[in-house]
Amino acid sequence: MRLAAIQCKYFAEEVVPAFTAVTKKYQVEKLTFLAAKPQPVPPAQPIPPHYLLKDGDFVQASHDNDLLNREWPKVSTEAVAHLNKLESFAIPFAAGVATDEIGFQETAPVFCSTVATMMPAIYHLG
C-alpha cells in the first residue's frame, strides 16, 4: 500500500509534468504526427483500433510514418523523458509489487489516455 501511494505521488509530480512538457513542445512546434490516419469504415461497422498488439508486438499501426520521422526530432527529447517516467511508474504495478486497487485505480484513466495519445511515439521507439 505504501509503494502504491509513493507511485501515485511520483505520477503526479513526475509523469504528469513530463506529459505537459511534451504536449506543450508538440503544440509550439505545430506537430501533427500523434494524430492517427483516418481509416475508411463501411457503414454500420465498428471502428477498428488504430494500433493493435498481439503477443507484445504491433500487428497494426495507423499513422503517417513519413510524417512521424520528419517531426520526431523536434520533440524526441521531451517524449522519451515522458515515456521513461511513464514506464518507471508502471513497472511496480506490472510486477505486482504495488497494489492496483490503491495506486493504479487512481491513476488509470490518465495513464491509459496518455499511453493512447503517445502510441505513435511508442510504436516509433519499438
Give structural notes.
There is one protein chain. The protein has 126 residues and is mainly alpha-helical. The protein has one domain (2-37, 47-110). It is built from 5 helices and 2 strands, in the order H-E-E-H-H-H-H. It has helices at residues 2-28, 65-71, 76-94, 100-117, 119-125; strands at residues 51-54, 57-61. A two-stranded antiparallel ribbon has the order 1-2. The chain is globular. The mean pLDDT is 84.
How many helices? The count is 5
Overall 3D geometry?
Answer: globular
Instruction: Show unreliable segments.
Output: none
Could you tell me the mean pLDDT? 84
Q: Which strand order does the major sheet show?
A: 1-2
How would a crystallographer describe the biggest sheet?
2 strands, antiparallel
What is the number of strand segments? 2
Series of H and E elements: HEEHHHH
- The radius of gyration computed from the alpha-carbon positions, rounded to a whole number of angstroms, is 16 Å
- Strand composition percent: 5-15%
Class by helix and strand content?
mainly alpha
Terminal Cα separation, in Å?
32 Å
Question: Portion of residues in helices?
Answer: 55-70%
Instruction: Tell me the count of domains.
Output: 1
Feature tags:
126 residues; mainly alpha; two-stranded antiparallel ribbon; 5 helices; 2 strands
SSE topology:
Elements: H1 2-28, E1 51-54, E2 57-61, H2 65-71, H3 76-94, H4 100-117, H5 119-125
Antiparallel strand pairs: 1-2
Could you give a quick summary of the protein structure above?
The chain is mainly α.
